[in-house]
Structures are given as structure tokens and as C-alpha cells.
């Protein structure tokens, strides 16, 4: 649809759940494919994130915690690790990172604490 409107697009699969060693290669491959297709990387939007099962910290399994950290932190870290050198090499650009809206949404039985700047 984008190409019909005169734009350019490329679809590339990139798994940033980082549950295995292919995650880093997926990130590098995706960025390389982007630069091949468009000649540069201008505004990467790092938006992958997952939430935990609703419950208490004491009831959270370590495997569940690792799944969250691997996606939300390691996935974003790897994207930044390989985006930054590309962007520094080409000059000005910007990176957008987003986080989950769960930080400001309460769940039944779990107290809500807003960040200081949102009170």
C-alpha cells in the first residue's frame, strides 16, 4: 500500500525477544538490510516490549522475569548498540525508544505508584 502511494517499504523479520543467540544476528541483519534498501538509517523506533503476568513479585518465576528482561532491556540494548554506530557515521538523526503503558496502569490488587513527574 505504501509503495502504491509513492513511498518505499521493506519488511524484515527481527526477533528481539532474545531467547536465543540469534537475536543479536537478527538485529544486525535488519539494520544492514535497512541501510541496503534506503542508504541510511534515520529514525529507528525501538518499540518491542512485553509485560509480566499479573501477580506479585514474590510469585513471579525467574523464567518469566528473564523473558521480560531479555525482550524489554536486552532487545532494546542490542538495537541501540548497532543503531548508534550507523547513525554516528552518517551524521544527524534521532532514535525513539518507547516503554510500556503498564507503568501508569493499575491492576486489581496491585497498588499503583505514579512516577514523580506524573503526580
Helix and strand topology:
Blueprint: H1 22-38, E1 45-46, H2 62-90, E2 96-97
Parallel strand pairs: 1-2
Can you characterise this structure?
- This protein is mostly helical and 119 residues long.
- Helices cover 39% and strands 3% of the residues.
- It contains two helices and two strands.
- Strands 1-2 form a two-stranded parallel ribbon.
- Helix 2 links the parallel strand 1 and strand 2 (96-97).
- Helix 1 runs parallel beside helix 2 (62-90).
- It is elongated and about 50 Å long.
- The model has no long low-confidence stretch (mean pLDDT 83).
Largest sheet: 2 strands, parallel
Q: Helical region count?
A: 2
Can you give the mean pLDDT? 83
Query: Which percent bin holds the helix content?
Result: 25-40%
Task: Put the structure in a nutshell.
This protein has two helices and two strands; from the N terminus they run αβαβ. It is mainly alpha-helical and 119 residues long.
